[in-house]
Design brief:
Its cofactor is [4Fe-4S] cluster. It comes from Nitrosotalea devaniterrae. The chain is of the alpha/beta class. The strands form 3 sheets. It has a 4-stranded mixed sheet, covered by helices on one side. The protein is globular and about 60 Å long. The structure holds iron/sulfur cluster. The site of iron/sulfur cluster has 11 residues, from loops. The site of iron/sulfur cluster (SF4) has 11 residues, from loops.
């Protein structure tokens, strides 16, 4: 049925036939004017790859420090060490937070922070060892590839040495942050003091090769053009073909409030909901056959639009995001309960399932 309706798009025909899309196909989809048809094709591919289930993890977010040597223009979270609301958690603080996470039913802690210019590698090792000592069953998803790259530079160790030591200390997987957009034309305008796109990709590939799987993100809805989105997706697909180490792609809608991009007037409004849906659909279609999970980050989209995005190729809601602070700093409400997420999924006629970090189903509702 759908095959007959998409005769005006070679790229959609190929996607429905199960063929891999090229960069040019991706560019065609970024300007294809029938957003409903794009969504229907992405929804079909989602159905074929993962069925009706929509997953989410019970996840507790922890930001160990907001002190950051970088000063990215799209970030509302960072502070300089001298500011009154700058903070850095101790291993003891972190242990207390993990106990809280456990009491909330979290199965993973998601730990990220700024690029603290003074913390030694031992700080991170102690953090992970302390967590594992008191809560050996808690999954530690921590430190983006950008943070690992920064720590390696700061401590004059190789990326491989840092990753190996962190893994020995208890690191299980890595979150997908810091990827932003890899293309230097846009990356150099939205980040300041962060690794290049290629350095992020090299770091994550080394992690995958050491057996540390990860997520990957894509920050959209700011100053990018379609070619930057497609470039990003193609680069993710290339790494995934070599390592199979990505667990999910999480497209992140740029949140405007309190960022330098907003203050300088470089971005004056957040992206339109139709653009957000296009990004979800194109992500699904470009990564088909390589990455089964396309996550919809409800914290950034809002719960109602997140439900729609689940019908445009998404199959995962990321998680409960207990205690999230990064989007909160940019004006978004971030808490949700397991039952609330399950109900959001039921409302659109899909099947909710709580998963672990590796997408193994733990509980159905
Ligand atoms: S995005 Fe990360 S690296 Fe950039 S300023 Fe914010 S906390 Fe620092």
């Amino acid at each position: 049925m759908l095959e007959k309706l998409v005769k005006d798009s070679k790229a959609l025909e190929k996607a429905i036939a199960g063929e891999e899309l090229t960069y040019d196909d991706g560019m065609e989809l970024m300007s294809y004017d029938n957003i409903y048809m794009l969504g229907a094709a992405a929804d079909l591919i989602r159905q074929k790859s993962v069925g009706q289930q929509v997953t989410f993890a019970a996840s507790y977010y922890m930001n160990y420090t907001n002190v950051c040597a970088a000063s990215c223009q799209m970030c509302a979270f960072y502070r300089k060490g001298t500011e009154s609301d700058a903070y850095t958690l101790t291993a003891k603080d972190i242990e207390g937070r993990v106990t809280m996470a456990k009491n909330l039913g979290a199965t993973e802690v998601h730990i990220v922070g700024g690029f603290h210019p003074e913390l030694p590698l031992e700080y991170y090792e102690e953090m992970f060892k302390t967590i594992k000592k008191s809560h050996p069953e808690m999954h530690i998803k921590a430190l983006t590839a950008a943070e690992v790259f920064f720590i390696a530079r700061l401590t004059k160790n190789s990326v491989k040495e840092v990753l190996t030591r962190l893994k020995t200390a208890g690191l299980d997987t890595m979150p997908g942050g810091g990827a932003e957009l890899f293309h230097p034309d846009v990356r150099n305008k939205i980040v300041r003091g962060k690794c290049s796109g290629q350095e992020w990709l090299d770091t994550i590939e080394q992690a995958h090769n050491l057996g540390i799987k990860s997520n990957v993100t894509m920050l959209f809805g700011h100053i990018e053009k379609p070619e930057h989105i497609i470039d990003h997706l193609v680069k993710i697909r290339e790494v995934q073909k070599r390592t199979k180490g990505f667990l999910t792609l999480i497209p992140l809608k740029f949140s405007l409030d309190n960022t330098e991009l907003e203050k300088k007037g470089l971005v004056t409004s957040e992206s339109a909901s139709t653009y957000d849906l296009r990004i979800t659909a194109v992500s699904r279609l470009m990564l088909a056959n390589q990455l089964d999970n396309i996550s919809v980050y409800w914290v950034a989209l809002g719960k109602k639009l997140a439900q729609v995005a689940l019908t445009y190729g998404g199959n995962d809601l990321v998680g409960t995001a207990f205690s999230e602070e990064i989007y909160k700093a940019a004006g978004k409400g971030t808490n949700s309960s397991i039952i609330e997420l399950a109900n959001m999924i039921k409302e659109i006629g899909r099947e909710p399932a709580q998963r672990d970090t590796f997408f193994k189903v733990l509980k159905k509702f």
